[in-house]
Design brief:
alpha+beta, about 280 residues, single chain
Length: about 280
Amino acid sequence: MDAISRLLRLARLQGSIDRRSLRAGDAPLDVPAAPATAPLYLLSAGEVMIELADRDITVTPGDVVVLPRGQAHRLHASAESAEIDLFAGHYDYSPGAGELLFNSLPDPVHVSFDTRACEPMRLLSTLMLAEAQEDGPGTEAVLYALCDALLAMVLRSAPGRRLNGAKLWTAVEDERMYNAMCAVIDDPGHRWTIPELAGRSCMSRAAFIRHFGNSTGVTVGDFLGRVRMMVAADLLAGSEKTIGEIATDVGYQSVSAFGRNFRAATGSSPARFRRETRA
């Protein structure tokens, strides 16, 4: 399984349509902050402004906007738009892997697709809008799957481009760096070292560190820790393994060291996290 697919599976997201609409000439629509929710917007026609606390985003056809931290915002329809075709949805995620994934993304994530050149995106947006309008048997199941597909396309888009001053670390153009990321995600329990990952990439240690940072916007250590905590959260929530076994599975020889790092990443001890996610 590739890196993006593996991360999305770990996150256990649930995409849904929002029952709100916006038309040209409508009054601004206020959307309150929502914990553990990442709003999603896909625009096919017209122009919309998303007003955040610190910036405004102009959304044009082919744009996708995700607000990973669920911040409050306001939607404006352009008065000049005769038609607004906006898909509004959101991703719900539980504490743990999903939260770690969304907290690691730039906020907001704003990606522009050329729907004329990007045939998959054009088809996807058409299907999502049609299903949302149909609202018939099976609509929710179809939209869940389409929302996952849309997020995968967003996460792998815009390689090397900065979003709001931060890189979208899931979009790696350098195949050597991507292969190193896949190796870590496939085997998070391995005692990875920078020299080993550099060797797999046929690079010197210094060159690998530099290229990894330039490609992803994060350090090797940050990436390794992030993946290990996502896997650990998934195992704590869905397996019967002991905390010691999970610590070993994600590359820790010491349960106490694993506990410290897990608490730093999630704000909760492994034992408490397991109790609360299963309650």
